[in-house]
Amino acid sequence: EAGVTQFPSHSVIEKGQTVTLRCDPISGHDNLYWYRRVMGKEIKFLLHFVKESKQDESGMPNNRFLAERTGGTYSTLKVQPAELEDSGVYFCASSRTAYEQYFGPGTRLTVT
Amino acid sequence: AQSVTQLGSHVSVSEGALVLLRCNYSSSVPPYLFWYVQYPNQGLQLLLKYTSAATLVKGINGFEAEFKKSETSFHLTKPSAHMSDAAEYFCAVSHSSGSARQLTFGSGTQLTVLP
Questions:
Q1: B43/A104 CB distance under 8 A
Q2: pLDDT exceeds cutoff 90 at B102
Q3: d(Cα A12, Cα A49) in Å, to the nearest integer?
Q4: Tell me: the pLDDT tens digits for B46-61?
Q5: Secondary structure (DSSP) of chain B
Q6: What's the confidence (pLDDT) of residue B100?
Q7: What b/e string do you get for A8-37 counting C-beta neighbours within 10 Å, with b at 16 or more?
């Protein structure tokens, strides 16, 4: 079974530009999560999809972040426009049940 | 509300020595507790989980953790450290009921294994 994949692995953009991160969950996993780790800080929850619906987006920092999961398969997280404080590692995770979340390798975003 | 505290952002042990990584949690409802490990340039890998069954939980790579409700702790141990255990370890908590399943993480502990 293929694991959670994320693309790109690294992204370097300038302040004010737009970046779109993609996550492909494990096949059959209805739950998809986004997390972020800013340098030196904890990994923080951003949002949770169940299939294509946003179950909880309480962790989204502001309206510059837009997440979608069309068709309940892969998900994208768009940052527009990017700010310096958006730099960090963005993790995606998926799960079939409530007990285990399987994480992808993360996307390292650097905003200069 | 829930939170996790990991004592010690960096821990060093000698190869063959006991590994003890500390985690204390705060949760208003019975928690599910997890330890994840991140090896260099890799994603987070689940080491073990507590989901209200046995309080002593065994995980992969010889790690185990004990849930102690009275101490609100879930410390991770391994009897004998190996060089390959060098990584960052994260303790996490989630709710055991309701629809909220997001993980709340501690700040992580970087484990160094000395030869």
A1: yes
A2: no
A3: 27
A4: 999 998 778 899 999 9
A5: -EEEEEE-SEEEEETTSPEEEEEEEEESSPEEEEEEEE-TTS-EEEEEEE-SS-SEEE-GGG-EEEEETTTTEEEEEESS--GGG-EEEEEEEEESSSS----EE---EEEEEE-
A6: 56
A7: eeebebeeeeebebebbbbeebbbbbbbbb
**A93 vs B contacts (CB less than 8 Å):** 44, 103
Residue numbers in B near A4 (CB within 8 A): 43
Pairing label, strands B73-78, B64-68 = antiparallel
Question: Strand, helix or coil at A72?
Answer: helix
Q: ω before A8 within 30° of 0 (cis)?
A: yes
